[in-house]
């Protein structure tokens, strides 16, 4: 491998810049040239290639977002789109591609590799933490802490007014952020896509807890929960809790921004360097991850085959401690 391309795609996550930096710097150490491709697969098709060196990634490790920008590309879902992408890679003499993103990003990379024989390695980066083959994805820890900080603040005002708050956190298909923030914030209840939500049961549990002289109550709702999020849940339960003057707060995209935590920066640095290493070793169609503090290589087809399962022991713990 002499020249690689690197791109970020799908929803951004804090730590993507740290991963780009690690890819570029580890490549420089290995005499590999790097092109950054802007706007993900859109830029791959539309020739948005920029030459990168050690200096292009100075002073970015602490920044949220992605200096390469991110986008979703419908054209890349078509064979003709991927053909254009492969032609551009050839034009720049790029032998291998590192893609930083989630399962949608990996699905595209896997197709490109199979159809055009291009070596690809994936780096898992999404706040949802829904990728198997790594204990955590880049950005998850940062998003968790951003959400937790917001929830702690909501608790202050909820407590002052003795109100009930329904706080919606991100997580399209999985409840990792909802579950861990609910434990860390001492929330009264967490509603997750992984569990069926029985409205009668939700009401019963909240009434039960409110009987214990609680002055405020906080329910963390994953956006992908069965009820369809916090606004819909509020419609269903507000009349039963009228005396608690219910409020809804949707945290939304603030969870995707901000400076990455130390843990995300270290994870991104490890995975960026590992991606270059595995390409040099001749691997392709794989994802790099960290499992039990050791680097792990997972075939992309496995990584995209199913969503990571939530830890049911943590669900039980949340129930014991509320
Ligand atoms: O996949 C990450 C994520 O932030 C999800 O939690 C959320 O459902 C989705 O992206 C939002 O996507 P968009 O930025 O396109 O609104």
TrEMBL record:
It is an enzyme of class 2 (transferase). ATP binds at residues 11, 72-73, 102-105. The keyword Metal-binding applies. ADP binds at residues 21-25, 155, 186-188. SUPFAM superfamilies: Phosphofructokinase. Allosterically activated by ADP and other diphosphonucleosides, and allosterically inhibited by phosphoenolpyruvate. Pathway: Carbohydrate degradation; glycolysis; D-glyceraldehyde 3-phosphate and glycerone phosphate from D-glucose: step 3/4. Its EC number is 2.7.1.11. PANTHER family: ATP-DEPENDENT 6-PHOSPHOFRUCTOKINASE (PTHR13697:SF4), PHOSPHOFRUCTOKINASE (PTHR13697). HAMAP family: Phosphofructokinase_I_B1. This is ATP-dependent 6-phosphofructokinase.
